[in-house]
Amino acid sequence: MRISSFILVIDSYLLRKGLLAVLNRIPGVRVLKEFGAEDPFGSYLNNHVVDYMIMGQLEFDRSADLFVSKPELLEKTVLVCGAGDKEAGTARAQRDVHRIIHLQDNKESIIRKIQDLLDTGDQKEREDLHMQLSPRETTIVRLVSMGLTNRQIADKLFLSAHTVMTHRKNISGKLGIKSVSGLTIYAIVNNIITIEEVSSLPPK
Amino acid sequence: MITRDRPMYRVVLENIQLLPLLPRFNLKPGFGELSVDEVCRNHGVNTDFFLEIANAFLDEMYIPGEGLSLFPLETMVDYITSTHSYYTEIALPMVEEKLHRLMERSRLTEKEILLLTTFFNDYKKDFIIHLSQEEEQILPYVLELEKQSARDTPDPEFIQKLQNYSISEFEKEHDRLEISLRHLSELIIKYLPPFDDLHLCHEVLNDLEVLMKDLIDHADLEDKILIPRVAELEKKLRNSASLE
Question: What is the ipTM metric for this complex?
């Protein structure tokens, strides 16, 4: 599972520590740093990978300049809102930020909201990876692990040797693995082949 | 975060994972009361460079961006070269030796042993080819590029070469060396029968984990710091050449 990083920007000591206690029990969450009253956090963002910031409304309003210069931060922001907060600034904060934890939320709903965040992150990462082999490529990895030469694979799959070579190249490119033995271990740990099925000859 | 004024012994004591980093800067424990800055200066190490590398090493979320762009590329190339020697002369042979010992004391079948041995030999071979390509082609090119761009009139031959070559070519072929190590760990933990020498088995898995993390950090340094800076220099040099 991917680890998502959080910072907390909340003036209130009690609220901050309380939220921290809940967050620390959720797998996949890593709270990098807490920022209390007036602690500047803008420069921290410049040299740390922060996936999400959880902020109070006052703190959000105070940082309006930061969000104007870096609007992409809005996507990373989770707002903590109280029930009675209805001032103008607050309304703006709630319009700009869609992820909101309410003060009256119970433990389960806070955890669910955070887990939703983590799930979206995980999905994005999977889409980024492009590491998935096509079914054809998977078949070829399996045959390579069984000790077949490119020629033998070509014959078996009714492909030209050239096509098999191209597949092999693409596979190595996707996985970052060149050697037959490396592909074999990859195939075993991805359940493409069992150790029993693997060629007993030392792969070339 | 580590800072320059803290005593070096405290920094290392509190962050024992830094140990493999020290030899790359020619630093050895036995620091006495000296601060990070004093230790670095005594050994001719650029303190700011050390701090950036050490902080990035300790905290995966730390981006060593701004600080690292201030150092001569030569400093970075030296560091990369000594990291390579650490991999090939210490880290890999150590894992290999333990892995062989582990296999000797196991009940693995001949086939499983052959599989592991061939795998590790091939991995080592590819690893060394990868590093020596970098050392023979990329790093000298980086040094030459830095030298040429410091000149008032760069060597026209080099400018010519720049028209056909760019560091981004290298980026495309940059293999991720840590992936196969992850597979090896998974093979041991999940697929192979249990090893009798549990202690040694744990040591191997730990060593693999440390090496993997180190390789990821190293690739990050190359991909996120070195390559963008080199690309920037290339652009500057090409532009100045086309202006004339």
Answer: 0.79
